[in-house]
Amino acid sequence: MTQRSSQFDFADHSHRRYNPLTDSWVLVSPHRAKRPWLGQEESPSKPNAPEYDAACYLCPGNLRAFGDFNPSYSSTFIFTNDFPAVKAKQPEINSTDSPTSLKSRLLKTQSVEGQCFVICFSPKHNLTIPLMTFEALIKVVGAWTDLYRWLEKEAAMENKPYKYLQIFENKGTAMGCSNLHPHGQAWCLSTVPSEVEQEFRAFKKYLHQHSSHLMGDYITLELQERERIVLENETFLVVVPYWAVWPFETLVVSKPHLTSLVEFSDAQRKDLALIIKQLTVKYDNLFETSFPYSMGLHQAPLNANMKERANSWFHMHFYPPLLRSATVRKFLVGFELFGEPQRDLTAEQAAHRLRCLDSGVHYSQRSSTS
Protein backbone atom coordinates (compact mmCIF):
# COMPACT_ATOMS: atom_id res chain seq x y z
CA MET A 1 0.00 0.00 0.00
CA THR A 2 1.39 3.42 -1.03
CA GLN A 3 2.01 5.72 1.92
CA ARG A 4 0.71 9.29 1.78
CA SER A 5 3.21 12.11 2.17
CA SER A 6 2.79 13.92 5.48
CA GLN A 7 2.74 17.37 3.82
CA PHE A 8 1.31 18.48 0.47
CA ASP A 9 3.96 19.89 -1.87
CA PHE A 10 2.56 22.12 -4.64
CA ALA A 11 5.84 21.73 -6.56
CA ASP A 12 5.60 17.92 -6.60
CA HIS A 13 2.04 16.72 -6.01
CA SER A 14 -0.79 16.75 -8.55
CA HIS A 15 -3.64 19.18 -7.98
CA ARG A 16 -6.25 21.25 -9.81
CA ARG A 17 -6.38 25.04 -10.06
CA TYR A 18 -9.50 27.07 -10.75
CA ASN A 19 -9.65 29.66 -13.51
CA PRO A 20 -12.23 32.28 -12.48
CA LEU A 21 -12.07 33.93 -15.92
CA THR A 22 -13.48 30.88 -17.67
CA ASP A 23 -15.13 29.01 -14.77
CA SER A 24 -12.93 25.99 -15.51
CA TRP A 25 -10.13 23.95 -13.97
CA VAL A 26 -6.58 23.00 -14.98
CA LEU A 27 -4.79 19.85 -13.78
CA VAL A 28 -1.24 20.56 -12.53
CA SER A 29 1.19 17.60 -12.54
CA PRO A 30 4.62 19.00 -11.61
CA HIS A 31 6.14 15.57 -11.01
CA ARG A 32 5.70 14.77 -14.74
CA ALA A 33 8.38 17.32 -15.66
CA LYS A 34 10.94 14.71 -14.60
CA ARG A 35 9.89 12.19 -17.25
CA PRO A 36 12.16 11.65 -20.31
CA TRP A 37 11.00 13.25 -23.58
CA LEU A 38 10.89 11.04 -26.67
CA GLY A 39 8.26 12.96 -28.66
CA GLN A 40 8.34 15.39 -31.55
CA GLU A 41 10.88 18.19 -31.41
CA GLU A 42 10.73 21.54 -33.21
CA SER A 43 13.60 23.21 -35.04
CA PRO A 44 15.08 26.10 -33.02
CA SER A 45 14.07 29.43 -34.55
CA LYS A 46 16.87 31.96 -34.96
CA PRO A 47 16.57 35.56 -36.23
CA ASN A 48 18.43 35.21 -39.54
CA ALA A 49 15.94 36.52 -42.11
CA PRO A 50 16.89 39.39 -44.46
CA GLU A 51 15.77 42.96 -43.71
CA TYR A 52 13.80 42.97 -46.98
CA ASP A 53 12.26 39.99 -48.79
CA ALA A 54 11.12 40.53 -52.38
CA ALA A 55 8.73 37.56 -52.10
CA CYS A 56 7.04 38.80 -48.91
CA TYR A 57 3.57 40.31 -49.44
CA LEU A 58 3.97 42.41 -46.27
CA CYS A 59 7.26 44.15 -47.07
CA PRO A 60 7.12 47.80 -48.24
CA GLY A 61 6.43 48.30 -51.96
CA ASN A 62 5.63 44.62 -52.60
CA LEU A 63 2.68 43.15 -54.50
CA ARG A 64 -0.16 41.58 -52.49
CA ALA A 65 -2.57 38.79 -53.45
CA PHE A 66 -5.15 40.81 -55.42
CA GLY A 67 -2.85 43.21 -57.22
CA ASP A 68 -2.47 46.00 -54.66
CA PHE A 69 1.01 47.25 -53.84
CA ASN A 70 2.05 48.14 -50.32
CA PRO A 71 3.21 51.73 -49.92
CA SER A 72 6.85 52.31 -49.03
CA TYR A 73 5.88 52.56 -45.39
CA SER A 74 8.49 53.44 -42.77
CA SER A 75 6.53 52.68 -39.58
CA THR A 76 3.54 50.61 -38.49
CA PHE A 77 1.22 49.96 -41.45
CA ILE A 78 -2.40 48.71 -41.37
CA PHE A 79 -4.39 47.44 -44.34
CA THR A 80 -7.62 45.51 -44.87
CA ASN A 81 -6.94 41.77 -44.94
CA ASP A 82 -7.06 40.35 -48.48
CA PHE A 83 -8.52 37.10 -47.08
CA PRO A 84 -10.85 38.25 -44.25
CA ALA A 85 -12.53 35.78 -41.90
CA VAL A 86 -15.75 37.83 -41.92
CA LYS A 87 -17.46 39.91 -44.61
CA ALA A 88 -18.52 43.53 -44.28
CA LYS A 89 -21.98 42.88 -45.78
CA GLN A 90 -24.02 39.76 -46.33
CA PRO A 91 -27.69 38.68 -46.39
CA GLU A 92 -29.60 38.05 -43.17
CA ILE A 93 -30.31 34.46 -42.14
CA ASN A 94 -34.00 33.73 -42.59
CA SER A 95 -35.20 30.63 -40.79
CA THR A 96 -38.62 29.05 -41.30
CA ASP A 97 -38.13 26.54 -38.49
CA SER A 98 -40.48 26.62 -35.54
CA PRO A 99 -38.82 28.19 -32.46
CA THR A 100 -39.93 25.13 -30.44
CA SER A 101 -38.44 22.58 -32.84
CA LEU A 102 -35.39 20.46 -31.99
CA LYS A 103 -33.53 22.07 -34.89
CA SER A 104 -34.10 25.56 -33.53
CA ARG A 105 -33.12 24.40 -30.07
CA LEU A 106 -29.91 22.59 -31.03
CA LEU A 107 -28.71 23.87 -34.42
CA LYS A 108 -28.36 27.57 -33.75
CA THR A 109 -26.85 29.95 -36.29
CA GLN A 110 -25.96 33.63 -36.01
CA SER A 111 -24.87 35.93 -38.82
CA VAL A 112 -21.55 37.73 -38.27
CA GLU A 113 -20.34 40.79 -40.17
CA GLY A 114 -17.21 42.86 -39.80
CA GLN A 115 -13.78 43.72 -41.13
CA CYS A 116 -10.34 42.15 -40.75
CA PHE A 117 -7.03 44.00 -40.77
CA VAL A 118 -3.35 43.15 -41.01
CA ILE A 119 -1.03 45.24 -38.83
CA CYS A 120 2.58 45.32 -40.01
CA PHE A 121 4.61 46.23 -36.95
CA SER A 122 7.72 47.26 -38.85
CA PRO A 123 8.90 47.68 -42.46
CA LYS A 124 11.89 45.46 -41.62
CA HIS A 125 11.20 41.83 -42.48
CA ASN A 126 13.71 40.41 -40.00
CA LEU A 127 12.44 42.04 -36.82
CA THR A 128 10.19 40.62 -34.13
CA ILE A 129 8.71 42.56 -31.21
CA PRO A 130 11.63 41.84 -28.82
CA LEU A 131 14.08 43.11 -31.47
CA MET A 132 12.15 46.29 -32.24
CA THR A 133 13.05 49.58 -30.59
CA PHE A 134 10.99 50.95 -27.74
CA GLU A 135 10.05 53.94 -29.96
CA ALA A 136 8.80 51.60 -32.70
CA LEU A 137 6.67 49.67 -30.23
CA ILE A 138 5.07 52.89 -29.00
CA LYS A 139 3.90 53.37 -32.60
CA VAL A 140 2.45 49.83 -32.64
CA VAL A 141 0.43 50.57 -29.49
CA GLY A 142 -0.61 53.87 -31.06
CA ALA A 143 -1.75 52.08 -34.22
CA TRP A 144 -3.86 49.65 -32.17
CA THR A 145 -5.41 52.63 -30.39
CA ASP A 146 -6.10 54.56 -33.60
CA LEU A 147 -7.77 51.53 -35.18
CA TYR A 148 -10.00 51.01 -32.14
CA ARG A 149 -10.97 54.70 -32.12
CA TRP A 150 -11.63 54.77 -35.90
CA LEU A 151 -13.87 51.68 -35.75
CA GLU A 152 -15.85 53.19 -32.88
CA LYS A 153 -16.52 56.24 -35.07
CA GLU A 154 -17.40 54.05 -38.06
CA ALA A 155 -19.91 52.15 -35.97
CA ALA A 156 -21.44 55.30 -34.49
CA MET A 157 -21.46 57.60 -37.53
CA GLU A 158 -21.84 55.14 -40.40
CA ASN A 159 -24.30 52.90 -38.52
CA LYS A 160 -22.08 49.85 -38.94
CA PRO A 161 -22.81 46.87 -36.65
CA TYR A 162 -19.32 46.69 -35.13
CA LYS A 163 -19.28 45.47 -31.52
CA TYR A 164 -15.82 44.14 -30.72
CA LEU A 165 -12.24 44.49 -31.96
CA GLN A 166 -10.02 41.47 -31.31
CA ILE A 167 -6.33 42.37 -31.75
CA PHE A 168 -3.88 39.46 -31.76
CA GLU A 169 -0.52 38.17 -32.97
CA ASN A 170 0.64 34.67 -33.84
CA LYS A 171 4.44 34.59 -33.67
CA GLY A 172 6.39 31.70 -35.19
CA THR A 173 5.55 28.69 -37.30
CA ALA A 174 4.83 26.65 -34.15
CA MET A 175 1.75 28.87 -33.68
CA GLY A 176 0.66 28.66 -37.31
CA CYS A 177 2.19 31.91 -38.55
CA SER A 178 2.46 31.68 -42.35
CA ASN A 179 4.50 34.87 -42.87
CA LEU A 180 7.39 35.73 -40.56
CA HIS A 181 7.31 39.46 -41.35
CA PRO A 182 6.50 41.13 -37.96
CA HIS A 183 2.74 41.57 -37.98
CA GLY A 184 -0.48 40.96 -36.11
CA GLN A 185 -4.13 41.03 -37.00
CA ALA A 186 -7.32 42.73 -35.85
CA TRP A 187 -10.76 41.26 -36.46
CA CYS A 188 -13.70 43.61 -35.97
CA LEU A 189 -16.96 41.73 -35.44
CA SER A 190 -20.65 42.44 -35.00
CA THR A 191 -20.56 40.03 -32.02
CA VAL A 192 -18.43 39.67 -28.90
CA PRO A 193 -16.23 36.53 -29.27
CA SER A 194 -17.02 33.61 -26.96
CA GLU A 195 -13.79 33.74 -24.94
CA VAL A 196 -14.24 37.45 -24.23
CA GLU A 197 -17.95 37.05 -23.48
CA GLN A 198 -17.07 34.30 -21.01
CA GLU A 199 -14.73 36.71 -19.19
CA PHE A 200 -17.39 39.43 -19.14
CA ARG A 201 -19.84 36.98 -17.56
CA ALA A 202 -17.23 36.03 -14.95
CA PHE A 203 -16.57 39.69 -14.12
CA LYS A 204 -20.28 40.40 -13.78
CA LYS A 205 -20.85 37.34 -11.57
CA TYR A 206 -17.89 38.22 -9.33
CA LEU A 207 -19.05 41.82 -8.97
CA HIS A 208 -22.52 40.65 -7.96
CA GLN A 209 -21.10 38.25 -5.36
CA HIS A 210 -18.29 40.38 -3.90
CA SER A 211 -19.05 44.02 -4.85
CA SER A 212 -15.60 44.38 -6.41
CA HIS A 213 -13.96 43.67 -9.77
CA LEU A 214 -12.36 40.24 -10.23
CA MET A 215 -9.30 41.73 -11.97
CA GLY A 216 -8.81 44.41 -9.34
CA ASP A 217 -8.90 41.83 -6.55
CA TYR A 218 -6.58 39.48 -8.46
CA ILE A 219 -4.02 42.29 -8.93
CA THR A 220 -4.18 43.03 -5.20
CA LEU A 221 -3.58 39.36 -4.38
CA GLU A 222 -0.66 38.99 -6.80
CA LEU A 223 1.00 42.15 -5.46
CA GLN A 224 0.64 40.78 -1.93
CA GLU A 225 2.02 37.29 -2.65
CA ARG A 226 4.55 38.30 -5.39
CA GLU A 227 5.21 34.61 -6.23
CA ARG A 228 3.95 34.77 -9.81
CA ILE A 229 5.04 38.29 -10.82
CA VAL A 230 7.38 38.45 -13.81
CA LEU A 231 7.48 42.21 -14.48
CA GLU A 232 5.77 45.39 -13.38
CA ASN A 233 5.87 49.11 -13.95
CA GLU A 234 3.71 52.07 -12.96
CA THR A 235 0.74 50.97 -15.08
CA PHE A 236 1.08 47.25 -15.80
CA LEU A 237 1.68 43.96 -14.05
CA VAL A 238 2.88 40.77 -15.77
CA VAL A 239 2.15 37.50 -13.97
CA VAL A 240 2.06 33.82 -14.76
CA PRO A 241 -1.58 33.42 -13.74
CA TYR A 242 -2.29 30.92 -10.98
CA TRP A 243 -4.48 28.95 -13.41
CA ALA A 244 -2.11 29.09 -16.42
CA VAL A 245 -2.46 26.28 -18.97
CA TRP A 246 0.51 26.92 -21.27
CA PRO A 247 3.94 26.30 -19.66
CA PHE A 248 5.10 29.94 -19.69
CA GLU A 249 1.74 31.64 -20.17
CA THR A 250 1.54 35.22 -18.93
CA LEU A 251 -1.14 37.79 -18.23
CA VAL A 252 -0.41 41.49 -18.78
CA VAL A 253 -2.97 43.53 -16.86
CA SER A 254 -3.37 47.22 -16.13
CA LYS A 255 -3.05 48.10 -12.44
CA PRO A 256 -5.52 51.01 -12.62
CA HIS A 257 -9.00 50.21 -13.91
CA LEU A 258 -8.46 50.98 -17.61
CA THR A 259 -11.11 49.49 -19.85
CA SER A 260 -9.66 49.99 -23.35
CA LEU A 261 -6.72 51.42 -25.28
CA VAL A 262 -8.47 54.73 -25.89
CA GLU A 263 -8.42 55.49 -22.15
CA PHE A 264 -4.62 55.34 -21.93
CA SER A 265 -2.55 58.45 -21.39
CA ASP A 266 0.68 58.92 -23.38
CA ALA A 267 2.65 57.68 -20.36
CA GLN A 268 0.46 54.57 -20.06
CA ARG A 269 0.90 53.74 -23.76
CA LYS A 270 4.66 53.97 -23.23
CA ASP A 271 4.38 51.71 -20.18
CA LEU A 272 2.52 49.12 -22.27
CA ALA A 273 5.09 49.27 -25.10
CA LEU A 274 7.95 48.91 -22.63
CA ILE A 275 6.52 45.97 -20.71
CA ILE A 276 5.64 44.11 -23.94
CA LYS A 277 9.24 44.54 -25.12
CA GLN A 278 10.66 43.43 -21.77
CA LEU A 279 8.41 40.37 -21.61
CA THR A 280 9.15 39.21 -25.15
CA VAL A 281 12.90 39.71 -24.61
CA LYS A 282 12.60 37.44 -21.56
CA TYR A 283 10.74 34.87 -23.67
CA ASP A 284 13.48 34.82 -26.32
CA ASN A 285 16.19 34.66 -23.66
CA LEU A 286 14.55 31.69 -21.90
CA PHE A 287 15.67 29.13 -24.48
CA GLU A 288 17.77 31.45 -26.69
CA THR A 289 15.37 31.14 -29.59
CA SER A 290 12.79 33.30 -31.33
CA PHE A 291 10.07 32.29 -28.87
CA PRO A 292 6.69 31.48 -30.47
CA TYR A 293 3.41 32.56 -28.91
CA SER A 294 -0.13 33.65 -29.54
CA MET A 295 -0.98 37.00 -27.97
CA GLY A 296 -4.35 38.73 -27.70
CA LEU A 297 -5.76 41.93 -26.19
CA HIS A 298 -9.00 41.83 -24.20
CA GLN A 299 -10.76 45.13 -23.56
CA ALA A 300 -14.13 46.84 -23.59
CA PRO A 301 -16.50 46.43 -26.56
CA LEU A 302 -16.60 49.23 -29.13
CA ASN A 303 -18.80 52.14 -28.02
CA ALA A 304 -19.34 50.41 -24.69
CA ASN A 305 -22.04 51.79 -22.44
CA MET A 306 -21.40 52.69 -18.80
CA LYS A 307 -22.15 49.18 -17.48
CA GLU A 308 -20.01 47.51 -20.15
CA ARG A 309 -17.07 49.79 -19.36
CA ALA A 310 -17.42 49.18 -15.62
CA ASN A 311 -17.39 45.43 -16.32
CA SER A 312 -14.30 45.52 -18.59
CA TRP A 313 -10.63 45.59 -17.58
CA PHE A 314 -7.78 45.87 -20.10
CA HIS A 315 -5.46 42.87 -20.20
CA MET A 316 -3.41 40.77 -22.62
CA HIS A 317 -2.91 37.01 -22.78
CA PHE A 318 0.36 35.46 -23.99
CA TYR A 319 0.12 31.74 -24.80
CA PRO A 320 3.57 30.31 -25.71
CA PRO A 321 3.85 26.56 -26.50
CA LEU A 322 7.50 25.80 -25.62
CA LEU A 323 7.84 23.49 -22.63
CA ARG A 324 11.38 22.29 -21.88
CA SER A 325 13.64 23.81 -24.51
CA ALA A 326 13.68 25.55 -27.88
CA THR A 327 12.73 22.23 -29.49
CA VAL A 328 10.14 20.71 -27.12
CA ARG A 329 6.64 22.15 -27.22
CA LYS A 330 3.42 21.54 -25.31
CA PHE A 331 0.61 19.73 -27.11
CA LEU A 332 -2.98 20.07 -25.95
CA VAL A 333 -4.06 16.52 -26.78
CA GLY A 334 -5.40 13.40 -25.09
CA PHE A 335 -6.61 14.21 -21.59
CA GLU A 336 -6.44 17.93 -22.40
CA LEU A 337 -8.96 17.44 -25.23
CA PHE A 338 -11.28 15.01 -23.52
CA GLY A 339 -10.86 15.88 -19.85
CA GLU A 340 -9.39 19.27 -18.91
CA PRO A 341 -6.17 21.25 -19.55
CA GLN A 342 -3.03 19.94 -17.83
CA ARG A 343 0.46 21.38 -17.21
CA ASP A 344 3.77 19.94 -16.02
CA LEU A 345 5.22 22.83 -14.01
CA THR A 346 3.53 25.14 -11.57
CA ALA A 347 2.79 28.79 -12.30
CA GLU A 348 5.23 29.72 -9.52
CA GLN A 349 8.05 27.68 -11.11
CA ALA A 350 7.42 29.28 -14.51
CA ALA A 351 7.27 32.78 -13.02
CA HIS A 352 10.56 32.27 -11.17
CA ARG A 353 12.34 31.20 -14.36
CA LEU A 354 10.97 34.15 -16.33
CA ARG A 355 11.58 36.65 -13.54
CA CYS A 356 15.27 35.74 -13.30
CA LEU A 357 15.90 36.35 -17.01
CA ASP A 358 17.35 39.52 -18.52
CA SER A 359 14.63 41.77 -19.96
CA GLY A 360 16.93 44.46 -21.35
CA VAL A 361 19.42 42.72 -23.63
CA HIS A 362 18.32 40.16 -26.23
CA TYR A 363 20.44 37.01 -26.33
CA SER A 364 21.35 37.63 -29.99
CA GLN A 365 22.80 41.04 -29.08
CA ARG A 366 24.89 39.97 -26.08
CA SER A 367 28.13 39.47 -28.00
CA SER A 368 27.90 42.91 -29.56
CA THR A 369 27.20 44.60 -26.20
CA SER A 370 29.75 42.72 -24.07
Automatic annotation (TrEMBL):
Residues 7-193 form the Galactose-1-phosphate uridyl transferase N-terminal domain. Residues 199-366 form the Galactose-1-phosphate uridyl transferase C-terminal domain. UDP-alpha-D-glucose binds at residues 32-35, 65, 81-82, 170, 176-178, 185, 330-331, 335-336, 342. The active site is at H183 (tele-ump-histidine intermediate). Its EC number is 2.7.7.12. Belongs to the galactose-1-phosphate uridylyltransferase type 1 family. Fe cation binds at E199, H298, H315, H317. Binds 1 zinc ion per subunit. Zn(2+) binds at C56, C59, H125, H181. It comes from the Eukaryota. It holds the Pfam family GalP_UDP_tr_C. This is Galactose-1-phosphate uridylyltransferase. Its cofactor is Zn(2+); Fe cation. It catalyses: alpha-D-galactose 1-phosphate + UDP-alpha-D-glucose = alpha-D-glucose 1-phosphate + UDP-alpha-D-galactose. One of its GO terms (biological process) is galactose catabolic process via UDP-galactose, Leloir pathway. GO terms for molecular function: UDP-glucose:hexose-1-phosphate uridylyltransferase activity; zinc ion binding. Pathway: Carbohydrate metabolism; galactose metabolism. One of its GO terms (cellular component) is cytoplasm. Signal peptide: none annotated. It is an enzyme of class 2 (transferase). Keywords: Carbohydrate metabolism, Galactose metabolism, Iron, Metal-binding, Nucleotidyltransferase, Transferase, Zinc. It comes from Lachancea meyersii CBS 8951.
